[in-house]
Amino acid sequence: MAGRTITVGVAIPVPPPWGEILDRARIDSGDPLGGMVPAHLTLLGPTEIPAESLDAYRVHLAAVAGACPRFDLHLRGTGSFRPVTEVVFVAVVDGIAVCEQLEAAIRRGPAERERTFPYHPHVTIAQNVGTPALDTAFNSLAAFEAKFRVESFTLYTHPNPGAWSFETLAGAPVPWTPRAKFPLGVG
């Protein structure tokens, strides 16, 4: 069907045991996506592409992954985008440049679009909650630290915009589904 779109995203999942800790923090904050979206570092947020471009985009992602050596990611402490957006996150302290390079390369082709905000690699732990919950999330993980080797990234598909909202998520299926894992080049 011509004109049909699919919403894709690309992320680095946070592995155990750290992923579970961050998932619990998101759930505890009351974030509507807590328990539904696993802890991850976004390389491409939800982006509509033509459905007929998906196979070519997978080829593009495989090439991007193959050209990037495996790298170490170091997460430590918390940060916030407040007052610009009501988001609290775990900060990336090492691996930032590689994430920025991956994000720029992944964004090419059918996924090319203007950013709403400059890219800032992070792992969200609370959003769409009140100020007290944001403050608690910020303080509860201030001493958090994780170091792990990034060996791949994952392509996800999302329901198309309008198919779900934060208000309608309760009881709904997970709003994103892993579709393909792309191993990074040896490094």
What does this molecule look like?
The structure is a single chain. This protein has 187 residues and is of the alpha+beta class. 25% of the residues lie in helices and 34% in strands. It is built from four helices and eight strands. The longest helix has 14 residues. 28% of the residues are buried. About 7% of the residues have low confidence.
Question: What share of residues is helical?
Answer: 25-40%
Radius of gyration: 16 Å
Return the structural class: alpha+beta
CATH topology: Cyclic Phosphodiesterase, Chain: A
Spans of at least 5 consecutive residues whose pLDDT stays below 50 are: 162-174
Overall tally of domains:
1
What is the percentage of strand-forming residues?
A: 25-35%
| Cα separation of the termini | 41 Å
| Total strand segments | 8
Number of separate helices:
4
Broad shape = globular
CATH architecture: Alpha-Beta Complex
Spatial strand sequence of the major β-sheet: 2-1-7-8
CATH class: Alpha Beta
Largest sheet: 4 strands, antiparallel
Tell me the series of helices and strands, N- to C-terminal. EHEHEEHEHEEE
What would a concise description of this structure say?
This protein has four helices and eight strands, in the order βαβαββαβαβββ. With 187 residues, the protein is α+β, with helices and mostly antiparallel strands.
